[in-house]
Amino acid sequence: MAPMGIRLSPLGIGVFCLLGLGVLYHVYSGFLTWRFSSFLLGERAGDMVDLRELLAAAVRAAELGGEEVKAVRQSNKLNENSKGKTREGADEMLTQGDLLSNKKMANLIINSFPGVQVNSEEHLGEDDKEAIYWDRVVPNEIKEIVKSSKLVSSDSITVWIDPLDATAEYTENLINYVTTMVCVAVNGKPIIGVIHKPFTGYTAWAMVEGGSNTKKRASYNEKTPTIIVSRSHSGPVKELALQSFGNQTKIISAGGSGYKVLSLLDVTGNNQDSADVYIHNTYIKKWDICAGNAILNALGGEMTNLKGEDIIYTGSDGNEGGLLASIGLDHNTLVEKLSPKTSK
């Protein structure tokens, strides 16, 4: 018996082709609709987020926040007040610069990447919501350094925003200490960090296993390191540093955690102190330190608590164990020098 086959008349062929085109159109148009909605929402298939895109958005958010911070300071209308006391008893200042910067930075991230968790130092109320979006443009500088996209699930991401680091110094017009910062943590690990200095225009950014626009210095002094500490409660930290590293140790007091992390890097020409180790011995908020932690990790440095334990960027917004940050030095050796004093 001859094999059976299907023969189509010219009319049948035409109908089949039209049906095929219809199916293709339906599928393709649906794909375009999905892609367009993904474009608007900053999402990808399976609610995935491209970390390179999130880095670009974080840089833009820090810059926009910095514009607000600078404009308020230059207007001299800070509307400053205290929002409470720190654990050390100092006034925790809040200004118009904090609020307007937070409005720009938080709205840009929330609107552009609606699936991610955003934690910011300042509250974003219903009246503060603004239709501001990232423009979906990844700058060439980022493309040249971070060569490829990296997709992660949006529910694994926490974005930490500090809309104005060093507010106390900001009110005193010590503007060189002031930064705006964004950090992206994935499953609690700091992966993307952005530190922007509004009054110099300098921005440092990095992505772990992606690259950075900054770098570590050529050398560090391990024998007698220069230690940078907080100017707001420097006494106990200075005592700890001198006991651990000797009375000849040079101590720099400075404002702002972002500024202190930059002091460990090669940022010559940006009106920046230079130090070898950053120490903080009390409670500190995670939005103050996450961006610096990510940048140091990307460059081969470390930021831990004083016991050498990693800081996890989920859950509570505070880090209880103090802070030790270094790059280009043996971090474990630094922990060992500090441990007899911190364990008392």
Explain what you see:
Its main location: membrane. This protein is α+β, with helices and mostly antiparallel strands and 344 residues long. The protein contains 9 helices and 17 strands. It has helices at residues 10-41, 51-75, 96-112, 140-145, 167-171, 234-245, 257-262, 286-298, 331-342; strands spanning 48-50, 81-85, 91-94, 117-120, 151-153, 157-165, 179-186, 189-197, 202-207, 211-212, 227-230, 251-254, 277-280, 284-285, 302-304, 318-319, 323-326. Strand 2 (81-85) and strand 3 form a beta hairpin. Residues 1-46 have low confidence and may be disordered.
In short:
Residues about 1-45 have low confidence and may be disordered. A 6-stranded mixed sheet has the order 4-6-7-8-9-10, with helices on both faces. Strands 12-11-13-17-15 form a 5-stranded mixed sheet. The chain has a two-stranded antiparallel sheet with strand order 1-5.
